[in-house]
Sequence to fold (329 residues):
Amino acid sequence: MASRLIWLNACKSTQLKTLATAIGINSSGTKPILTAQLQDQLPKSCFSGSANSKKAQLCSQNIVSIDMGIRNLAYCRLLVPQLKPAAKSGDLTGLDKPVVTEWTRIAVSQKSGVKSDAAQAIWKENFDPATYCQHAYDLVTTLLATQHPTHILIERQRFRSMGGSAVQEWTLRVNMFEAMIYAVLETLSKRGMWRGTVHAIAPAKVSKFWLGDREEIEGSGSKSAKAKTAKVDLVGKWLEGKGGFELEGQATELGEAYLRKRRVTKRVVVKEPELSEGKGKSDISVEIGKLDDLADCLMQGMAWIQWERNRRMIMEEGLKALDVLHKAS
Fold:
């Protein structure tokens, strides 16, 4: 396989970085490091087997993309239908258009069944490990039972944000919850109760892939606030028909609510599933709330799928893939 990628040795460092960004791997380092990294990662399919294996070309993929949080955890389910042979589809990647069938935001820490504001005021939110291991178990088992994922993408958490020296208590809580989710998934996998793969996704790679390295993003406010606005606007454009995916079921309702939320300031109400022992959906209608969490989980899932598309296209086209990537950017 390395001989098939010998053309990488003739690429400039900037070209190697373009290829690395296109498949979602680290794009920093010297030319020899980037070349070795691409030779190792390009043949590896995110789905199954190698990027050109028949097994990978015949499997439907069921992806759950999670944007981590406690009061604002968002996730979406993307179904990539049975893959078409490249020759018949006219697409070098052989991947069909993804379908978003579930897309929502939940408050993991909210007590199940507590509806009134008065009852919520009496109930005290706990953040101890014993409580959160139960939250992690409920979340994972609910997702596995209702979404049946072959792949779970989890937003990778950091201890510090924006270069700050302090580690915020809320950040530690989300990191603890993230670790518990991994532990539950690993346990279920090792015991043969779930066959799938878990992928940690660095949010910086997703942002760089969709928004680029632009130092200045249009709009007012801090750099972080402007980046959030840019993400929300990008997903809004996708929902208006430029996203390369389709919406079905509950995701269609939320997509319409998302666009209304962007256009007007009035409250938009949708139904949200409740994570509980019943593993069903609640009858509680809730505000759609923050759009950036919903945008992040969808951008993460779509980036991961596009990285796989690019990986297959690069393996097929070789050096010509750089021209395709430049035209697409």
Observations:
- The chain has twelve helices and eight strands.
- The first helix runs from residue 13 to 22.
- The two ends are 28 Å apart (CA to CA).
